[in-house]
Structure prediction request, 342 residues.
Amino acid sequence: MQTEDNITPTACKLARKFIYFMSVILFFSIFFFPVLPLSAATPFDPLSISTHLLDDYIHMVKFNRLLKVDTPMITGPDSSGLEPYLGLAEDQSDSEKDGPISRMQKLLLSWNKNLPLKVSGHYDKATAMSVTLYKLVHDCGFDGSFIDRETAHHLLAMEYNWPLSKKETSLVAQVLNEAVKFLGLRYRLGGSGVKYIDCGMFTRMAMISAGIAEKVFNRTAAMQYRYAEQGDMGLFLRPAGEPPQPGDLVFFNWRTRFQNRRYKGITHVGFFLGQVGDRLLVLEAASRGERRVTIKDRSDSISRIAGYAQIVGPPPGTDIFDYINMAAEDLENLMVPKLGDD
Prediction:
């Protein structure tokens, strides 16, 4: 808003800019443009030229002022191209072909082609499970039933190759970032992790790759449970009743032909991803059904959960021989068979 105090300075600034503008035009007209012949039919009218130049300058000033107007960012499922993913939620569907949900599903599959989802344009259960894992790996939370602002920015950065500001990666993200590399690998009891893998080898290799565990970390679920009981190998068994956290190891005592020879009957292990709605999500090497490393809803197996182990970090001053002796003792007592789990 102009007042009596600022009318004069503003007018002076505009006059000064106009003088500079006219000087530049005059310079270029003299040295760079040919002089047009004058005649009685086309008289030279400097006032007319000046008027047109002044009008152009005024339009330019108005246009520059319009560019400085701040416009609010549109957000939500029906947003502009700036935030097409923010606000998407489970059970929503695209209203058109190649809508934001389809684009998001394609992005997730480009991140990891072995995620358990398909490009359908519908935010279904498989999409929610995949988003849960994506959020945990990128430290954006864990509830995959909706897309928050931070996750939307990550998806846009991946879509347009934008750089993201670097931040310290959590322990959970480090481990799961290694675990997702095994997605889709087929299950086989005693698998080495190259062509086939079993549940204990899966958690073992993910933790070793993340630098959390030593290479002597045992491959069996029962032995990993025993580590957690004793607070060894970077694991700590959560007390009964303490709520688990995403990224914990979750142990099951499913009934198998080997259960009686397992330490405390532990027969299966995986990475707990969180309780999303009524689903209990676990990233595991599944020995039943799909028989591959995938995300499973284990809400129907809660009664078979033996406990959760927090990953607390790499163990300081590990004595390798202690763990070798512990494993040898278990083998001798037939508490843990030599090959894998399940």
User: Anything to note?
Assistant: Strands lie at 186-187, 196-197, 235-237, 249-252, 268-276, 279-285, 293-297, 305-311. Confidence is low (pLDDT under 50) at residues 32-42, 67-81, 331-341.
